[in-house]
Every structure is written in C-alpha cells, then in structure tokens.
Design brief:
homodimer; about 400 residues; alpha/beta; six-stranded parallel β-sheet; five-stranded antiparallel β-sheet; globular; binds NADP nicotinamide-adenine-dinucleotide phosphate
Chain lengths: ~400, ~400
Amino acid sequence: MAKQIGLFGFGVVGQGYYSIAKKHQQNLLPKTIVVQNKKKERNPELSFSFDPNDILDSNYDIGLELISDPEEAYHIVSTLLKSGKKVVSANKKMLAAHLPEFLQLEKEFGGSLLYEAAAAAGIPIITTLDTHFAGDQIEKLEGILNGSSNYILSQLFEEGLTFEEALKLAQDNGFAEADPTLDINGSDVSSKLAILILHAFGKFVPEKDIPTLGVQHIRKEDVILAQKLGLKIKLIAKAQITADGITAFILPSLVNPKNALYWVENEYNSVKIISRNLGEQFYKGKGAGSLPTGASVYADLTKSERGYSYSYDKLNGELPKTFQPKSGNLEVIVRAHSENAIKSLVPEAEIVFNQEAYWSVATISAQLLQEKQTLIQEEEISIVALNETATKKDVLQALKEEVKVTISLN
Amino acid sequence: MAKQIGLFGFGVVGQGYYSIAKKHQQNLLPKTIVVQNKKKERNPELSFSFDPNDILDSNYDIGLELISDPEEAYHIVSTLLKSGKKVVSANKKMLAAHLPEFLQLEKEFGGSLLYEAAAAAGIPIITTLDTHFAGDQIEKLEGILNGSSNYILSQLFEEGLTFEEALKLAQDNGFAEADPTLDINGSDVSSKLAILILHAFGKFVPEKDIPTLGVQHIRKEDVILAQKLGLKIKLIAKAQITADGITAFILPSLVNPKNALYWVENEYNSVKIISRNLGEQFYKGKGAGSLPTGASVYADLTKSERGYSYSYDKLNGELPKTFQPKSGNLEVIVRAHSENAIKSLVPEAEIVFNQEAYWSVATISAQLLQEKQTLIQEEEISIVALNETATKKDVLQALKEEVKVTISLN
Ligand SMILES: NC(=O)c1ccc[n+]([C@@H]2O[C@H](COP(=O)([O-])OP(=O)(O)OC[C@H]3O[C@@H](n4cnc5c(N)ncnc54)[C@H](OP(=O)(O)O)[C@@H]3O)[C@@H](O)[C@H]2O)c1
Ligand SMILES: NC(=O)c1ccc[n+]([C@@H]2O[C@H](COP(=O)([O-])OP(=O)(O)OC[C@H]3O[C@@H](n4cnc5c(N)ncnc54)[C@H](OP(=O)(O)O)[C@@H]3O)[C@@H](O)[C@H]2O)c1
C-alpha cells in the first residue's frame, strides 16, 4: 500500500522534490503541503495547509521537512520522531545543532531520519559514508562544501571579477541567498562539516568548535599572489585523525592542479576521503539548487520507504574519539590593511609590503584562529592556508618580487 | 542473532574482505571458506572446505561468492538464489552474462544479490546508481573502468615508458593479471559497462554487443601526438541516450585537462554521470586490489544483512529502452603500420605518414568497429577517439608538422 507522505515547505527544495516525484512516481507525491505565507499565490490543484498539525497529528507515514525556519523545523522533526515516523530533512543548521538528540529519539521511538541534502546537496556523501565506509577507518576528509563561495572564487580566478562583482553575480544566478552572510563567512560549511564528521569519524562536534573562516576577505591581491605561484584558492573544509584525536578547520586554502579539488569550479561541491581500506576516494557534484537538492530528498524518500536508515557505523568504531578544536597548526599567508593588524595576529612574523597591503607567512594554531575571530573580522584580515602546496620561501619570494617596502624583519 | 556467513574463494578479494571483517566486526566473519586447491598451505585456525555443498546444502544466511572460476561461480550464485539466500558476488564476467536470470531468481525465491565490487571495485557506483539516481534520468555515463589499462597509459604518458615496459610494471605491481589479455583488450571493461548500463539505463546489454577496443595497440607514437595537442589518452567506456536509444563504446580516447577524467592516473578508476536532476556527478577511487575490493564486498555484506537489495529503479523508468550497438558515429584517429591496413578500415580518408606510421582522421561507425575487429587485431591498428577535444584540422596539422611524406589525398 502506498505510504502517506506529508511535506513541510514548498520553496526551492520542496518544489524540486515535488517535480521529480511527479515525473517519476505519483505515489511518492505529498498528500498535504504545509507552508506559512497566506498571501502567496498557490497552485489550486495541490492541497496546501498553514497548520503543521494537519500532518503532525495525523496518520502520515513519512514527513519531509524542507522549510527555511530552523526553530519550526526542529519542532517538526522532533515531533515526528517522537511518533516513531520516518523523516527526511535538508536543514543543515538545525541538524548540526540537534543530531545527538534526534539519534536518541530514533532509538527510543523506532522512527528514522535521513538528511542527504543537508551536506553537499546533490552528492550522496552521507549515504556513502554510512554504507560504503562500513568497517573502514577514515583518516582524512576534505571538501568544497559551499557552492556560493566556490562560485565567487571561480569568478575571481577565471573571470578576473572583483569580490563585489562576483558576489552580485552569485546572487543574480541564484547561487547565493539575498543575505549571503552564512554562505560567505563559512558558517554554512561548518554546519555541513559537523554533520560529515559525525558520519566519518563517529563523533558529534558542535559547529561553533570548528575553527572557521570563509571567503569574505579574499580579494584580488590574494588571487594575484596565488596565480603567481601557479595555484588557486578554494574554501577547504578539512577534518582528520591525528595522534591526539580529530582536528578540523575551514579556511581558504591554496590548492595545486594535482589536487582534484583544484578543478572543482563554480557552484560545484566535492569531497575527498582518505581511508585505510579504500585509499583515496573523490566525489564531485552540485551543492545546491532546486533539482539537485530535490533529487537527494527524493532519493532519501525512496530509501526511507524501503526501510533504510543510517547505521552510524562509526559511532561504534575503533577511532580516537576526542575532538581537538584547539589543536593543530597551520601554515598560512596573512594579509591585512595595516601593520598593526598583522602584528596583533602574528607578532613574531616577518612582514612584507606588496600590492598596497601587509603580508606575512606564519604558523598559526587553531586556538589562535578561534580566539582572534573578532580581530580578523574587524580588520578584514585575509588568511589563506598553504596546505602543502608551496613553501614559505616560495611565497615570500613571490611577495618580494614586486616588493615596495620591507617593513620589518625580526 | 548473528547471521551465518559462507565464503567461496580466499584469494586477493576473499582475503581482503576477511581482514576487514576481522578488524571490524567478528560476527561478519565466515563460518566456512570453500576453496579449490588441496595443496595450498592454509591458516589452520580457519575452517576451510573443498566442497561447495558444505555451504550450499546448509543453513547459511549469506553467501559471498569470490572465486575466479566463472562457471563454478554461476553454479554457486544460482543455487544460493534458488534457496532464497542473500548473495554477494564480485565476478563481473559471470554477472554480466547472467544478470537477467538472477533478477528473475531473486523475484521468484525472495533472495537478494549485491555486487558492488564487480564494477569500479572500490567506488560505490552501483549502490549510488540504484539509490541516489532514483527518479532521475541519466543522459550519459562515462568512465575509466580498468586499473591496469589506466596504469599502463599513465606510465606511457608520465614516465615515458614503452608499452611493454609499462605492462611489465603493471604486472610486477599486481595491477595486471599474469595473463593480462582481458585487462588490456577492454573485455574486463565491457563486462563492467554492461552491468552499469543495466543500473543506469534499465536495459540489459550483452557485453559482446558493446563496440570495444582496449589499449593493446597504443604505442609511443600515439602518446607523442596526444602530447603535441596538449591532451592525454584514456581508455573511456561511454554509454548515452540518443534519439534512437542507448549507444555505448569502449575506446582509447583523447581527453583534455578540463575533463576530470584527465586527472585520473595509475590504478584509479572513475565514473562521470550526466543526469537530468543532478547535472554532472564525478566519482574517483581505486578500481582493484585486496582492500579496496574487499571493502566493497564488506559494505555489500553489511547492507545485505540489514535487508538492503537493489531496487533496479531504472527498469521501471521512462527511458528509451532500445540498445543500438550499431548506431552512433565517432571521430577517431587511426594509425597503422601499412597504407593498405588503413585503407581497409577507412578507404576514403586522407592518409598522412608520420613517425614511420600511416595515420588518418576519420568518422567511423560503431557497426564498422564491430565488423572490422579481426582486421584491427591482426594489423594492430590503433584507434583513438577525438571525444570533443580537438578538431580533425588540429590533429592533421599536428601530424603534418613533422610530416615526412604525404601519401595520398583523395
Ligand atoms: N536551496 C538549496 O539549494 C538548498 C540546498 C541544501 C539544503 N537546503 C535547505 O533546505 C531547506 C529549505 O530551503 P529552500 O531553499 O527550499 O528555502 P525557500 O526557498 O526559502 O523555501 C522555504 C519554504 O519553507 C516555508 N516555511 C518557512 N518557514 C515556515 C514555517 N514556520 N512553517 C511552515 N513553512 C515555513 C516557506 O513557506 P512559504 O511558501 O509560505 O513562504 C517556503 O515554502 C533549508 O533548510 C535549506 O538550508 C537548501
Ligand atoms: N583482484 C581484484 O582486484 C578484483 C577486483 C574486482 C573484482 N574481482 C573479482 O573477484 C573474483 C575473485 O578474484 P581474486 O582476484 O580474489 O582471485 P584469486 O586471487 O585468483 O583467488 C581466487 C580464489 O577462488 C578460489 N577458486 C577458484 N576456482 C574455484 C572453484 N572452482 N571452487 C572453489 N574455489 C575456487 C581459489 O581457490 P584456491 O585458494 O584453492 O586457489 C582462490 O581462493 C573474480 O571474479 C574477480 O574478477 C577481483
């Protein structure tokens, strides 16, 4: 017998799922669609409701939570799980905040929760981590997880646009929200990385504990330097196992052409995994958009209907289970508008003046990156990780080639 | 209660699976291991048997078929399916020949058959096609599916080895079999592509109907020409939907650096898919070896144990369901040792003499490629597809730059 499906939200993602179900399998269409805004015009052939309880209180088997309001989304998902229902969600912010509680509810009430679209939307990375890496030990996970940021970087590198022009184009093309803050400051990426860390390493990490910097301060000067070195800058999210435990960072990073991430352009996302059994695996696909995201939701729905639930294999694994948000050092290029700004971040480092900015190459700790967030934001300091692409010497050399004044050497 | 697992075969793949299960979850270790050779020394702590019926006749829940003998493998898999058992197999040749029958047995007797390791060993491509592309329409699937061939091509391009040296190195490193015929003549790839076509397009295609040429005739001359054009040669397996139906080819092909397949080196495999909902997706991972292949088998086992079976979503899809083995034209570069050889393949084409060989650029049909197999093998004719990388003019230009004699122009 066909399952009864209730849908919350009919925006970009909800409509994507709907159009796929309509083309493919009518019995996976929703019986009721809950939305919020009573003034919007709606297709009169669909049965819309403005009361979540029309689904929550009724005999629906599967609930699809695809709304943009994290609080209401939390209410919907937890209520459905408490009734032992099958749930699909795409709400990364909300999921990254509540996954441990949801896992508990699944166990207690026998429901299930799938959320493939919540990280790297179109790429089946969560299902793959959950099934294909069963029995494996992941050493490193690295990815490009925000389509807007990657689109902006591609436009800076390939088309020579300014940051402002690139951001505007991303918005015009629907790759960045009207308020792009969460996209460009890396916050969207930290939600996704938190979810991936749970599936890859079996540890729940609050996203605020992941040292994060987005692309918001990347400007032409950084692009010119990278190009001089034959490299590109990508916003890389990285988590790995070290002797101390799991470390993670999100930082603009130099990448070279030998790295598959170098070739990921525009709105594409990608994930690279190094594991004991499988060696290196690499996945690339669309990270946002109505059909790619709707397709992941639809795939979750078909899996859910057939009884699939995440095994959370890694939660029972043999890995180091501590998370070390303050451990780990990174070699980075720092650029600021004033000598003082750079000195407050890396007091000891050699400073070079180039392209009307102050630069240095220094080793900074994750702890410092966390502690100095206010300074970094206020002074619009650009930080780019070297990421095994170039040596400090190469970078300093490239900076000095057109050097105007060498400010200090201590 | 722990399921009873029976294992057939304890070679490269069987031992890979075994070592993963041993590290991860002891209740997924086999109770009995059936092998063939009574003279081999075996670990006395494991319970080996030389009689398949020790598993086939008994109360085992899941059978892992990992032997190298296709006939016996067919017997094992069909017997298990007829008893409604869960089965995992890695035997691409055997599967490509018998899948329709096995699907029938699954339906009739309620068992299930998973075979992730049979195509692109370490990459979870079959599960992904089966779950993630549910409700999607795949337009094109393209991949590098044989690690030995790709390893040889990498050695030709990156290290400047001769074909014979590269093949020897592939064998020494365990990437090619002692008898490498099936690897280098593309036959291994056609088994894999036949399996992938079933999951991607919902159509069973006998592998012999796929026009196929391997890397066996690729020599330094071809490499030099490709490098002059700034391109590489990869052995590309390709299937796509055209107005007439599904077409498929396996041919050495030029690829350019913008194509992710260009960067797939050595023993790695990869698959690129273009679909209506997801746009372009790209996966890369190891295509052979004890742990990568064992990991796919182990993942299948955990999925199987949890009740997962393939949905064969595309078998019920909306796609053109005819296969057109003889349709489709390809622009190719042809190289032969004699003018006559080249004329027997492409009688009308302009012939250029370069690097002591006869060349031409021509459009050939899939039908011709099939019909002329004997000629191609006997004359060791090299055929490389242009694959949207360079124009006929570019290639002829490159060939003529160092031209010694232009033989004929008609
Ligand atoms: N867009 C993407 O590419 C993408 C990719 C991955 C994940 N996601 C996630 O998917 C979710 C949905 O994103 P979207 O892009 O589809 O958003 P959207 O286009 O802004 O649509 C949001 C929908 O949610 C409904 N809604 C908002 N608040 C509600 C409430 N309190 N009660 C009931 N309905 C409410 C809206 O109702 P009205 O129709 O009445 O306005 C609208 O239908 C978000 O969690 C997002 O992070 C999006
Ligand atoms: N190697 C790879 O990387 C790879 C990758 C993907 C798929 N595969 C597929 O996986 C399968 C196994 O390959 P492999 O590389 O592991 O082969 P292998 O190393 O040659 O081992 C073959 C095993 O099968 C056993 N065997 C052979 N014939 C048998 C028979 N009639 N009855 C019972 N046992 C028999 C052998 O027994 P003895 O121990 O007594 O010799 C041996 O244990 C093949 O179908 C292959 O195509 C392999």
